[in-house]
Design goal:
Helices cover 27% and strands 23% of the residues. It has one domain (14-350): L-arginine/glycine Amidinotransferase, Chain A (5-stranded Propeller), CATH 3.75.10. With 352 residues, it is an alpha/beta fold. A hairpin with a 4-residue loop joins strand 8 (164-165) and strand 9. The two termini are 18 Å apart. Helix 1 (39-57) crosses helix 2. The protein has helices at residues 39-57, 69-81, 101-104, 125-128, 136-147, 175-178, 189-200, 243-258, 311-321; strands at residues 14-15, 23-29, 61-66, 89-93, 107-111, 116-119, 151-152, 164-165, 170-174, 204-208, 225-229, 232-236, 268-272, 278-280, 285-287, 295-296, 300-305, 326-331, 347-350. The protein has 9 helices and 19 strands.
Length: 352
């Protein structure tokens, strides 16, 4: 049931928790779209999803979307074989067009008293790029209906991968995405800032420039800059990439260095390497491989790796940042074939 528009989440004491805040569950949508993952690669992608669910299921529920019972029956043995704690895997029959639940799923909120709510943004398939994926706007509503969560509807286009929060008032985002005319063409920057403040509790908004090559989302921040703690930002460094990535990521690094946190202090910034570029030779396109697209579970951090010389370096950096969690490297080369990653394919539901 949607709450009235009379009061905003912030006015009622709600905000978006940091990803490392304890989850009741992680939402995942099982791969099924043959345009995103064609037959020659779908088996490998299913293996990636099985590993993801297995790693998370040890310490939280995994609410796993399937289009129908037959799909669930076929997939669940793969999870069991991967070592998942099956008592924590919760199959949910909700139709979806694709796996990128970070972007079309609800953004869950908590109030100061620990009550759960959510924001349901409009999902327009990344600026209307993919008409066949517009259905997933409805999937977001179906998730809320299934979870019986009250929610707020600001009535604007937004994707979960375009924002990253530290849970105490600061959000990272990009001008390339949120100010793009294919999202909310009539909203000026100040008005978008007001929505971020009112609906996720972001008092301090850091506008980074743009994202890496190969990213079809118009610069989602979760592909290059992420909070690892309240005052710690991991930012991809493009020294191992082409001139475009190096220049853009250098700009983002300088913006972060000159930015202040919600208390007016400086951030601690760690450079995160980028793997060498991946290409789909058949379609002659660059793929958005990035270590920054990790996901923080209750006891595990899922880190995409790519059989790259930088994998070991990235693992070490993540282990230094998340000493209380196990860093689980998962080869995500097949996943980025679909223009997304591990973070894009997960959505946290906080524990209330």
């Amino acid at each position: 049931m949607a709450t009235t528009k009379e009061f905003t989440p912030r006015a009622l004491g709600y905000s978006m928790p940091a990803e490392w805040a304890r989850h009741s569950a992680t939402w995942v949508s099982w791969p099924k779209n043959p345009l995103t993952f064609p037959p020659r690669i779908i088996g490998e992608v299913e293996g990636v999803f099985a590993q993801m669910c297995a790693a998370l299921s040890g310490a939280e529920a995994v609410k796993l979307l399937f289009n129908d019972a037959k799909s669930a029956e076929k997939a669940l043995p793969l999870l069991e074989k991967a070592g998942a704690k099956m008592q924590n895997v919760k199959p949910v029959i909700i139709a979806s067009a694709d796996v990128w639940i970070r972007d079309y799923g609800p953004t869950f909120l908590l109030s100061r008293s620990g009550k759960k709510s959510a924001v349901k943004w409009i999902f327009n398939a990344w600026g209307g790029k993919y008409d066949d994926l517009l259905y997933d706007n409805q999937t977001g509503y179906d998730i809320l209906k299934f979870s019986k969560t009250d929610y707020f509807e600001p009535g604007i286009v937004m994707e979960g991968g375009s924002i990253d929060v530290n849970g105490v008032g600061t959000v990272l985002t990009t001008a390339q995405c949120l100010l793009n005319k294919n999202r909310n063409p009539n909203l000026p920057k100040a008005q978008i800032e007001a929505y971020l403040s009112d609906y996720i509790g972001a008092e301090n908004i850091i506008w980074l420039s743009s994202g890496i090559e190969g990213d079809d989302t118009d610069g989602h921040v979760d592909d290059f800059a992420r909070f690892a703690a309240k005052n710690l930002v991991l930012c991809a460094s493009g020294s191992m990439r082409g001139n475009i990535d190096s220049r853009v990521l250098g700009q983002n690094m300088e913006i972060l260095k000159s930015s202040k946190n919600e208390r007016g202090g400086e951030f601690e910034i760690l450079k995160l390497p980028l793997p060498h570029p991946l290409h789909d030779q058949e379609e002659n396109r660059k793929l958005p491989a990035s270590y920054a697209n990790f996901y923080i579970g209750n006891k595990a951090v899922l880190l995409p790796v790519f059989n790259d010389l930088q994998d070991k370096n990235a693992i070490g950096i993540l282990e230094s940042c998340f000493s209380g969690r196990e860093v689980v490297p998962i080869n995500a080369s097949s996943l980025v074939f679909g223009y997304g990653g591990i973070h894009c394919a997960t959505q946290q539901e906080p524990l209330s």
